[in-house]
Design brief:
Elements: H1 12-25, H2 36-52, H3 59-64, H4 70-73, H5 80-104, H6 109-126, H7 128-136, H8 143-170, H9 178-190, H10 192-195, H11 204-219
């Protein structure tokens, strides 16, 4: 069955993309309020963790990417663990902001599903380095820090389930297994950060549009009238 049969009109993809891009623009990589040196250290730590993994990285490795001495890093962060926590917490907060904005911005469940999948997929492609570290290194945090991150991850999962549940309750979406469906949808979007290559054949926008089409094939139970 063609994508158009699901209400994916010639105009609608551009409308979803425009709304999704606007949503992502409001969620920058690092908050503007961060001092420049803090930005520099966090970016160097992010790049190092992405390349070497948390356990394979040292503060000396991170300092090389800043031009600062290892001792100077301690002025801003007490440890490598604190750096990972700051990156993990911030990355999950940004992802949550994207997800909640999309979930709340839909005109109906199918529209919310479109916007959610597009925005979350595109974020994992555009911010693939941050997203990769956020999704794959957070388990190296200590128990106190993990509890904070788990709470944020739970809220992301809740937003996905809420969109699918609303659609199932309205009859607009076919979701026989809410827990399994939300896990599958989350995994599909999140995994983009693992393999996305900016020099590869896919663009963040193109992936967002393709994943919306896939999500509709999975969950839209009846053709949706063009909006």
């Amino acid at each position: 069955m063609s994508i158009a049969a699901y209400g994916w009109s010639d105009v609608e993809p551009d409308a979803i993309a425009e709304r999704g891009q606007h949503l992502l623009a409001a969620c920058p990589l690092w908050p503007i309020k961060f001092p420049a040196t803090r930005h520099l250290i966090l970016q160097a730590a992010l790049d190092t963790f992405a390349a070497r993994g948390y356990h394979g990285s040292t503060l000396k490795d991170i300092s090389r990417g800043t031009g600062l001495s290892t001792a100077a890093l301690y002025v801003h962060f007490a440890s490598k663990q604190d750096l990972l926590f700051e990156i993990s917490r911030h990355g999950h907060e940004v992802a949550l902001e994207v997800v909640e904005g999309a979930a709340e911005g839909g005109t109906d469940p199918a529209d919310a599903l479109d916007l959610l999948v597009y925005s979350f997929t595109r974020w994992h492609a555009e911010q693939h380095t941050l997203a990769y570290v956020v999704q794959h290194e957070w388990t190296a945090l200590d128990s106190h820090h993990i509890a904070v991150v788990q709470q944020l991850r739970g809220r992301i999962q809740t937003s996905f389930r809420a969109v699918l549940a609303d659609g199932a309750n309205s009859g607009e979406l076919d979701v026989p297994d809410l827990r399994g469906a939300s896990a599958a949808l989350l995994s599909m979007c999140i995994d983009v950060a693992r393999w996305f290559d900016p020099e590869g054949p896919y663009t963040p926008d193109g992936l967002g549009r393709s994943y919306v089409a896939l999500a509709r094939r999975l969950f839209v139970s009846t053709p949706v009238a063009s909006r």
